[in-house]
Amino acid sequence: MVDAPKDLRRDGRVTLMPSFRALPPSLRPNVRPKVADPHAASIHVPVARAMVDCGIYCDGTRLPGKYTHAAALNKVHDHEEAGKEAFVWIGLHEPDEHQMQAVADVFSLHELAVEDAVCAHQRPKLERYDKTLFLVLKTVNYVEHESIANAREVVETGEIMIFVGADFVVTVRHGEFSGLAGVRQRMDASPALMALGPYAIMHAIADHVVDGYLDITDLVESDIDAIEENVFSPTQPTNIDHIYLLKREIVELRRSVSPLTLALQRLGSDHDDLISVEVRRYLRDVLDHNIQASDRIASYDEMLSSLVQAAAGKVAMQQNIDMRKISAYVAIAAVPTAMAGIYGMNFDNMPELHWTYGYPAVLLVMLIICSLLFRAFRRNHWL
Fold first, then answer.
1. Residue 202: which of 194, 190, 213 has the closest Cα?
2. Contacts of 135 (CB under 8 A, 6+ apart)
């Protein structure tokens, strides 16, 4: 008999299990030990999985064909050696560290900017690394809702990072509501703008994002108007939580829009060795729109702060009115309660005991007193 394995000896009972060693070699199962792949840790998702589009532009016109990021840059260099103006525009969506590093190695992007592009959650800013500019933009999206009372979120945010060099543009997008397909289509249809070079694309993207700010402020204004109407309506109850929700969203908007003003100012005034005069003119127009959106958001923030105070006063006043109503009802109810308590003492000299109309007269007196109290409270707006 084959000895049972030790781990099967429990409570003094032994369960007999067959051992494969007892089988002849021809009947033994062919079980091979698993060997760890030494290269498993080096397997990464290719850059193409994160690449949305890759286009080569020569003299303002997009060239046909599909390219990898490395092949595209080599093609650009070939055109530049032939005396033509060419650059490549690559769009990435939420690349991981390996994918971003592979692109950075080809375009010589600085490691600090690469880290920001992967980690996201950056404030709007502009940084320069040698001959490359790195611009961070916050995108915003308005979440549709029937009313602010049913909304959990009003504004969603994302990010777009733009690397711009002499012959390349690399855009890194985070979020689902900040697509650049429309921007690329408009630029592809405008060879004159594309002929201005890679920084014209930076302008087009910034203009697209800032125009979105203005659209969002128009939509948020309608929510603020609804809140204002509710706060100053004497018949509608006010929930101060709705105001705080909207104020939180306005704070998120302010953090997305206001810091971009400084970055756009630097784009319009500095880096004249990289950005042409024509592109800087367009960038100044984007700056004006961003300042306009920032001013709107600041005014909304102040308005909501005032609405919070007004709503708090309205709630306190409503609570005071409710307490007065309760006191008035208690006072009115105290009259029949007191008279019922007196008659409940069973005195001998009670009007209704010896007088036919005594009981109706007592009821009439109680009714008159309660009516007088009710009118007095209504006159003082307690009821």
1. 194
2. 125, 126, 161, 162, 164, 202, 206, 263, 267
Q: Which residue has the tokens 């502009």?
A: 126
Give dist(CA 63, CA 142) in Å, integer.
36
Distance of CA 4 to the CA centre of its chain: 62
Query: Whole-angstrom Cα distance, residue 295 to residue 258?
Result: 9
> Domains in the chain, please, with CATH?
47-315 (3.30.460.20), 316-379 (1.20.58)
What's the token pair of residue 348?
């001998």
Mean pLDDT of 103-110: 94
Q: How far from the centroid of its chain's Cα atoms is residue 73's Cα?
A: 35
Whole-angstrom distance, CA of residue 87 vs CA of residue 132: 14
Distance CA 266, CA 259 (A): 12
CA distance 217 to 91: 28
pTM for this predicted structure: 0.72
Instruction: Look at strands 86-93 and 168-174 and give their pairing.
Output: parallel
How many Cα atoms are found within 13 Å in the side-chain-facing hemisphere of 271?
A: 24
* Average of per-residue pLDDT values in the chain: 80
Number of C-alpha atoms within 13 angstroms, CB side, residue 219?
A: 19
User: CA-CA distance, 104 to 299, in Å (whole number)?
Assistant: 41
Give the distance from CA 288 to its chain's centroid: 25
Report pLDDT for 339.
Answer: 60
Cα angle, residue 333 at apex, residues 328 and 336 outer, rounded to 5°: 145
pLDDT at 4 over 70: no
Whole-number Å distance between alpha carbons of 374 and 376: 5
User: Locate tokens 């002499």: which residue?
Assistant: 166
Question: Do 271 and 126 meet the contact criterion of CB atoms below 8 Å apart?
Answer: no
Angstrom distance (rounded) from CA 253 to CA 236: 29
